[in-house]
Amino acid sequence: MKRRKAFGLLVAVIVIAAGTALNLAGSAFAAKVLPWLYFDSLGTILSAAMCGFIPGILVGFVTNILKGITDHAAIYYSILNVLIAVEAGRFARKNMFRRFPHVLLPVVVFTFIGGVLGSLLTWMLDGGVFVDAATLFRQIGRDTLADLVDKAITVAVASGVLLLLPKKVYDVCNLDKWRDPDETKAPAGLHSLNTRIILAVSGATVLVAVVISWISIKDYHEIMIGEQKEFSEDVSTFAASFVDPERVDDYIENGYAAEGYSEVEEKLQMIWNSSRSIEFIYAYRIEEDGCHVVFDLDTPEVPAGEPGEVVPFDESFVPYLPELLAGEPIEPIISNDTFGWLLTVYTPIYDVKGTCQCYMAVDISMPKLMVNERIFITQLLSLFLGFYVLILAVAIYLAKKFLIKPINAMERAAGEFAYNSEAAREDSVESIRSMKIHTGDEIENLYHALTKTVEDTAAYIHQVSEKNQAITKLQNGLIVVMADLVENRDRCTGNHIKNTASYVRIIIDQMRREGIYSDALTDQFAEDIINFAPLHDIGKIKVPDAILNKPGKLTDEEFASIQQHAAYGGIIIAEAIEQLDAQDTGYLSEAKNLALSHHEKWDGSGYPSGLKGEEIPLSARIMAVADVFDALVSRRSYKEGMPFEKAMSIIREGSGNHFDPLIVQAFMDAEEELRQIADEKTTPKDA
Predict the structure, then answer these.
(1) Domains defined along the chain, listed by start
(2) Are the C-beta atoms of residues 650 and 637 closer than 8 Å to each other?
(3) CB 522 within 8 A of CB 581
(4) Which of 73, 132, 369, 607 is the residue whose CA sits 20 to 30 A from 502?
């Protein structure tokens, strides 16, 4: 088993390496020959179908990591290949790659993952820049159509390969399987161990990911803002270097007519064009009445202010007015006022006397910066989701292999342990031994403890069974001895107790074959009747010997005394029950029923209680037929035995008045067995 598992693992590793190479080769081929297709998931699908979820996920993830060496963006698409691996493993379990039209469903699902989700991921990786819905849907449609062709070809090739592979290949390298193909199902719902492990691993992974992602995004945001502040300060300082502070008054008064004004504006325009993140670049003189425009550039959204024009202060800048009016530097400001959400840097421009003539301002668009942040978040989430699925799959696999499946297997073996026979117990113990759970931890210790417990239990049950058998033999022997004591007093009955016991067994067997009173005739009930049949005449022990063995005809008083033996028998066994502190149920109750009621008649004319129909206990109704039949066919000191056919005729005639008709029916149907017993056991007893 270990060598087979090691070989299977080796095959799985080879398949993973081959699947990754196949993905990379397919991607390279598509890039050169069919650039609008991908062919980068064939290895993923084959690995997942042949070896299970984890190899498929590894192939999908590693493929994109390796592609990321030359194309960094490919790393962020690993989640798509991972999802394809998960779905491929699920479809393979349902054998959908080998059946048509079932194979069309994988094509649709893979197309949705690669086309729709892939297109949306591309849009998010581009920053989620707003485009109209029609444009976005057209792009998704184009990507989905291309991916449909790609996945149809890929699934067709994968299905062909899988159809050609023999089944034993799957049995060897499929890591999703355990040693027992008849996997025990875990309890459904939130209380199953499998669900709890998934929830725990998912919760812990998500919690760690959320914390790390929050810290990463927060740090990224702060670093990005810090870098943009530094960049803006550099740009503002650089732009300020083109402004002659001694000519600011001339710039404000004469604008484009001022000497060098146009040249400065051209240079500011070049600076503005150099970066997409710069929203505005301008120079203001700050005075009490507002911001006096020195330089301002037109943008597609906002026209430039004219030189000398006074622009009111934005509310966000009011707290900084004292410093601005004093010509002092201020920290960069993030505001969301008249001109939108901006990061603004003001650089003072001083003349030769050290007087601030104006401020060179650079506004950075915060929404454009947030595009970068959204791209970063998308990249982070796509990488996390790929890792998350891989970690979850590995965790679930390890939990199933080393925890859930061993526990379920032990639970099943313990629940199915058979106690009803020695062979069944041995088979159950051997079944548990053959599991051979080797996890190297507490689960293995639990398995060894369970194995020892069931072995000890089976041994104890064997000992108890042997003792019970000995007790049963002793009990049955005592019953026969007691019955012999009674029989030895009655010189007329011969082998009556042995004969009737044989007839009772034949009647019961036939009734069970025909389904008569099947609910009542359990194994235990039948065994009790057969074992205690010899005690049905135990009450004769209280009948005087003179009456019991009188050779002639009995008087009415003597016959009445003989009839009392049934009541005496019920009293004797009732006293035994009381002495044993046993309730009037089980085998002793049937012994009492046999002794007390075997002379009751179906029509109510019997004794000692005059019971009728099913008021008479079933055991006594069976005994009545056997008792009368043996009395008819047996040779006694005072009579010859009746011919078998005549005795059978009398029993048949007694159906419905003396005897239960259903029991008589079974009795008649067992005629051949009865004849054999009657011929063997009707020899008279020596006087």
Answers:
(1) 2-177 (1.10.1760), 221-373 (3.30.450.20), 490-681 (1.10.3210.10)
(2) no
(3) no
(4) 607
Q: Can you tell me the distance from the alpha carbon of 585 to that of 263, in angstroms, rounded to the nearest whole number?
A: 119
Q: Which single residue is written with the structure tokens 């400065």?
A: 264
Q: Where are the beta strands (DSSP E) in 277-398?
A: 278-287, 290-296, 310-311, 333-337, 340-350, 356-365
Contacts of residue 623, defined as CB under 8 A and 6 or more positions apart, other chains included, come to 500, 504, 529, 533, 536, 594, 598
Asked whether 660 and 602 are in contact (CB, 8 A), the reply is yes
Contact 431, 413 (CB under 8 A): yes
Residues 6+ apart with CB under 8 A from 228: 277, 343, 364, 369
pTM, two decimal places? 0.57
Task: Give helix 78-93 / helix 42-51 axis angle, nearest 10°.
Answer: 40
Residue 520 has what DSSP assignment? T
- What pLDDT sits at residue 461? 75
636: DSSP letter:
B
Which stretches does DSSP call E strand in 180-332? Answer: 278-287, 290-296, 310-311
What dihedral do alpha carbons 502, 506, 508, 509 form, nearest 10°?
A: 130
- Listed in sequence order, the residues at least 6 apart from 38 whose beta carbon sits closer than 8 Å to its beta carbon are 26, 27, 30, 114, 147, 150
C-beta separation of 598 from 569 below 8 A: no
pLDDT tens readout for residues 256-298: 999 999 999 999 999 999 988 899 999 999 999 999 999 999 8
Cα diameter, the chain: 164
Q: What does the chain come to in residues?
A: 687
What distance in Å separates the CA atoms of residue 520 and residue 528, rounded to the nearest whole number?
Answer: 12
